[in-house]
Amino acid sequence: MNTTAMRIFVILAVVLLTLQFKTHMVPVAGTWFDNFASLSESFVLGRLAYSEQNGILSEGALLGRSQGAPAGVRERDYQYTVYFESIPIKSFLLYKSPPALHSLFFASIDAISPLTNRQNHQLFLWMASLFSAAIFSWFLWWVAQSFGLFPAGIGLLSIFLSPWLVVSGGHLYWVSGSLLVPLMVGLHLHQKERQGKTIGPGLFFIFTTLGVLTKCLINGYEIVTAICVLATIPVFFYAILDRWSFKRFAARFMIVATGVIFAVIISMGVLVKQIDSAPSSNMDGISHLKERFSVRTKGRYFNENRTIPENIKESQLVSISQVLQKYVNEGAFYYQFGKQAAIGKITFQFFLVLLVMLTLAQFFYFRDDLMKTLVASSYIGLLGPLSWIVIFKSHSYLHVNINSLFWYLPSMLFLYVGYGYALKLLWLRLSKPLKN
């Protein structure tokens, strides 16, 4: 493949995605771009303000928010004011779900930056956008290497126009590029191995651990079961493509799975240490993790006297199929014809149907090894979202507005590539008679 063309494509991808994630220059998400997961992002701003006044390691470097917002002002909006105007913090409410060590990085820059806090905030948004753009471009580079530049171009266009990826790419809490790191580490190593380089089991273990750990140390355990499945997708992909023996597949899968588990354990240890070192924490780290697991799965608190919110009670009464229905009916893309028209949506269910259609096209027409591998891996990837819905039903029911990102890990991304590759195969087959 033309190296110059590849470099130009990757640079173009990084630039376009960075601009889209930061500036929303093609407004595919409407007002949602400014409101996505605003509560989560406000915890990062609260942390920055608290670090500025009390030190970057204060309260275990945990996220949180300043309390005492004026009447009529939402607590989440008040965090921006506190940070921008350096308002003294009298009471700080901890948010102990993620380690969020990237906020420690932001706070370190904030401590030495000559810029104003408003300018630093913009700098951090640019940094998050660039990071996510770089990871997605890494994915597109792999696509170009494996499927060609045209499918990679279709992938770039699809990512650029995907509202879910646009609103989360430069988000200071989600930094959605971090979700893709476990996949990319695996794809990169397996591709290098396929090209003839010797990569031992130790390297697969170490880099899988680092990939999953990167995700967990940024946004914690959000959709973590989907991440665990995602980290194993490269094993399935190359095992199917190169027809590995079961022995080779099982050995590689166990190495990667062990790395995944090890990464989650390490990140939990970091979070426990953070919580235990926070003077204002009302619970030790291990007990906190146990309670959060109980709440997200069963909707129960350890303190039996604590009132359970009605929405959590409701989440325990619905079936898994009802929760799944909410997710497949969630919009993947939104559109509007004319200024007065109602906003419509193309749901994830539509794309699941497209996956079935692509499967039929592969079975009856293409019969291409790469397409077969891509389709099969897309189906395996669906185990990620299903695992989160089944295990964490309560959380899934309540947070469709953020958890739907799991459809991209990696099934939606692979589907984008699949249709680009299908068009390429179709063109090659139709053009053959013309050449003859």
Low-pLDDT residue intervals, each spanning 5 or more residues = none
Radius of gyration: 23 Å
Give the SSE string.
HHHEHEHHHHHHHHHHHEEHHHHHH
- Largest sheet, described in full? 2 strands, antiparallel
How many domain regions?
Answer: 3
Percent of residues in β-strands:
under 5%
Secondary-structure-derived class: mainly alpha
**Residue-averaged pLDDT, rounded?**
94
Query: Percent range for helical residues?
Result: over 70%
- Gross geometry: globular
Major beta sheet, strand line-up: 1-2
Task: Count the beta strands.
Answer: 4
Number of helices: 21
Would you mind describing this structure in some detail?
The chain has 436 residues and is mostly helical. The chain folds into three domains: 1-173, no CATH class; 176-281, no CATH class; 318-436, no CATH class. Helix content is 71%, strand content 4%. It has 21 helices and four strands. The strands form two sheets. It has a two-stranded antiparallel sheet with strand order 1-2. Helix 1 runs antiparallel to helix 6 and helix 7 packs antiparallel against helix 21 (411-435). It is globular. The model has no long low-confidence stretch (mean pLDDT 94).
List the helices and strands and how they pair.
Blueprint: H1 3-23, H2 32-35, H3 38-54, E1 63-66, H4 75-85, E2 92-95, H5 101-112, H6 117-147, H7 149-161, H8 163-169, H9 177-194, H10 201-219, H11 224-241, H12 246-276, H13 285-298, H14 310-317, H15 320-328, E3 331-335, E4 344-347, H16 348-366, H17 369-381, H18 383-391, H19 393-398, H20 400-403, H21 411-435
Antiparallel strand pairs: 1-2, 3-4
